[in-house]
Amino acid sequence: MTTKTPFIAIFVLMAAMLIVPGCEALEEAVEPENDVDAQNELTGKRVAILITEGFHDAETLDPKEYLADRGASVTVIGPEVATVGAYNSDVEVDIEKAVADVSIDDFDALVIPGGQSPDNLRQYDEVVDFARDFFNTGKPVAAICHGPQVLVTAGVLEQRTATCFGDMSYELKEAGAEYVDEELVIDGNLITSRVPDDLPVFSEAIADVLKN
Fold first, then answer.
1. Which phi and psi angles does 167 have, rounded to 5°?
2. Residue 30 CA to chain centroid, in angstroms?
3. How many angstroms separate the Cα of 117 from the Cα of each of 49, 50, 59, 144, 173?
4. What is the pTM of this model?
5. Sign of CA dihedral 93, 127, 80, 53
6. Residues 143 and 156 in one domain
7. CA dihedral 163, 114, 94, 212 (to 10 degrees)
8. Are 85 and 60 in contact (CB under 8 A)?
9. For this structure, is 164 an active site residue?
10. Of these residues, 49, 93, 144, 145, which one is catalytic?
11. Tens-place pLDDT, residues 48-82
12. Which range marks the domain in which residue 9 is found?
């Protein structure tokens, strides 16, 4: 008996060592399924990103890529079909469709990035009208940094709670909105954030609203 005991102990130890890697392999095999679920969670959802010359690069591309990676169909719209440049880098983005050539029924959500683009956008009556009509459908409208300037001009922020880039907070207040300095503010169908550092929660909030 005493001579066999070490062999039994070694056998048990080897069996335990085999079981542990097996569990890890099982966990690794499950993870890709979860990734596939994430990639498809917004399939069938259509999102418009509204920009023109002077857009902020990250505030445009981060939500665009985040939503597209989850299966959403993302279209960049603007005053006219053109290639426009960011104000803060050499990045250029193609405006795929003019606002005049799309309908609010074409999209499930509208995203308005910041930079100098929003102030340029609100010079176009057709853009302001589109933003107003889209907002009034109750579909999600997400604006970050200076993005709410378009909604200020559209006259849809009265009695709404929102945030924005701090230096333009007076515009929200003059438009009748309650300004709060928080990374993410959701009031009904309105989603707002302040600065590029808020992009992770901003993009996630858009996806969550679309899923639900």
1. -70, -15
2. 27
3. 12, 9, 11, 12, 21
4. 0.83
5. negative
6. yes
7. -10
8. no
9. no
10. 145
11. 999 999 999 999 999 999 999 999 999 999 999 99
12. 1-40
